[in-house]
Amino acid sequence: TGDVKVYVNGNLEASPTLPTGSLNLENCILGQEQDSFRGGFDPSQAFLGIMDEIRIYNRVLNETEVYNNYCDTMTPTTLGLVSWWKLNKSTGTSAPDYLQTNNGELFNFFESSGSCWAIGRKGEISDEGYGVEYDATPPSAITNLSALTGVIPASIDLIWTAPGDNGTSGTLNGEYRIQYSSYNDTFAWDLNNAQLSISTFNVTPGDDQYYTVKGLEKDTTYYFRIWTWDSAYVSDNWSSISNGATTWLQIIDDTPYAVTGLTAERIASGILLNWVKSIDDGAGENDV
């Protein structure tokens, strides 16, 4: 239609109308202002800024979709998406189409003072050049998760060693997810189905971590797994699944036995009660 909408940070800023026509993408230069199609190029016409990624759709996106794409850290709107260049290689001069739809590859990237290759991520600007840093290294998998019957009735205490933000290094600010089951052979472990989520803040790698799972059934074997996330604004930056921890939850019935021989005798000052005390509380200890 010739209507162009310009969005900045997900917000509509301008709606100019331009002449309509066909566009030959074979030699299209992204980020270049030209006086005419395939016209001369002057360095002053270069785009000065950061291209985090490039997407091409075969339909018009509405304002909500544009805003959601801007805010999304993982998967953009895919309806009508025909090409997607993530620009997340660390070296080289070309960028492949992530969708692998044979819509071409971007070429002639170059590094210079003031610009650099970097895997894009919202939130952290690099101190070197104008790249955007991206945390692509998840925490290491926890390998020493253990489970013990808890001091609190109907509970199990979990113990493990904290990994790091990147593998085994770096202060951890993120999340633990714990999943548990009373059966193991056919159970599908999945962090998205974990019953427990624990936020982490300023955790030092190697520190002991503790968590008590409450409200469990007695005389039941429980199996546990745990995952770690490092809050890298990338929702799949999770560790691999931990080792398995297993324990049998035995809850001792320590309710005292009932007294016997209860009698009542009327006396001048009232009623005198007599009974035979229970010497066993059911736990095998004569401590009543």
UniProtKB/TrEMBL annotation:
Record protein name field: Uncharacterized protein
Any one Gene Ontology molecular-function term assigned to this protein's record: metal ion binding
Fibronectin type-III domain: residues covered: 138-250
Ubl conjugation recorded as keyword: no
Record Pfam families: fn3, Pentaxin
Domain Pentraxin (PTX) per the UniProt entry, residue ranges: 1-105
InterPro entries: ConA-like_dom_sf, FN3_dom, FN3_sf, Ig-like_fold, Pentraxin_domain, PTX_dom
